[in-house]
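My hope is that you will study the record closing this message with an eye to the fold:
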Amino acid sequence: MQKVKLPLTVDPFRCAQKQLDYDGIVDKSRLLRLGETTQSIDSDAEVMLSFDIDAQGLKIVTGRAAVSVSLECQRCWGPFSYRYETEFVYSPVFNEDQVGNLPDAYEPALVDENGEIDLIQLVEDELIVALPQVAMHEDTDCKVSSDNMVYGEIPLADERPNPFAALKNLKQSNEE
């Protein structure tokens, strides 16, 4: 089955009523913020979205997104290819006041003035959050061995006399 481009925005309430599923791609040229946080985006993002209504009657969007990017290794500073996948669950809200009413498992998706959510932004946010905090090659692929890394030395503490030693001497002299 051929993957198609996802719509830019959707009405999450109507989609949830119809229990729609989307299986498509987000063109890498639309992922500008992800491109700024990586060296390059190597593939279009593959995205699967399902709209539904949960047991509490809340409209939800569950999804999964996968993409390949090039990152800079923080050990050797060389580029490497990284493919990753992230899963997420959103519930549409009209304003910030409704966010507190959502279960902890759901992230809020703010609905715009037209009653729609921006799917591209939603997917891109999740892809950015799922990036590794410290990007590194696998040990076997990196030019710099983790065995040869030096993190610095901790200087020895000064051999100063204990300031309370004088009190100890006073206590002993009072006991005599």
